[in-house]
Amino acid sequence: MTLPITAFYASLLALCYLYISVSVISVRRRRQISLGNGGDTELLRLTRVHGNFNEYVPLTLILLAALETITNVHWVLHLGACSLLFGRLLHAYGLRHHEGASWQRLAGMALTFLSLLFLACTNLFMIHYMVL
Fold first, then answer.
1. How far is CA 25 from CA 43, 72, 76, 118, in A?
2. Residue 83 is part of which domain span?
3. Is the pTM of the predicted complex or chain greater than 0.70?
4. Cα separation, 84 vs 111, whole angstroms
């Protein structure tokens, strides 16, 4: 079984992750900080962008892949995946460019949580629906 929708969004998210990683490395090299954040607020924010991405994307992609194996309703898959993608982009932008709260961080986390909730509930519904 192929998972083209999951592969598409995983690839876009991988490109985002590479950009975030290169941003962290760039600041580390420029400021000569090899471990930790050295008290640098920009590096602290960037490492949180990086870490936050790592905390939410893998589980949500697993949910997307699981759902893609049990349904061919493409709009449902795209809805969950787009919510994750735009949520992560907004959150990363907000965290990188603003200290403290920002509408981008709030919207980004809301979209990420909605994606997790939507994909998890849809998986449970589909599993229940398929069993009955």
1. 9, 40, 36, 34
2. 4-131
3. yes
4. 6
pLDDT at 99 over 80: no
Q: Which string of DSSP letters, residue by residue, matches 47-101?
A: HHHHHHHHHHHHHHHHHHHHHHHH---HHHHHHHHHHHHHHHHHHHHHHHH-SS-
Q: Residue 45 belongs to a domain with what CATH number?
A: 1.20.120.550
Residue 33 phi, psi dihedral angles, 5° rounding: -120, 110
Token pair of 60 as six digits: 């949500």
Does residue 94 have a pLDDT over 80? yes
C-alpha span between 4 and 106 (Å, rounded): 30
pLDDT value, residue 113:
97
What is the domain count for the chain? 1
For residue 62, is pLDDT > 90? Answer: yes
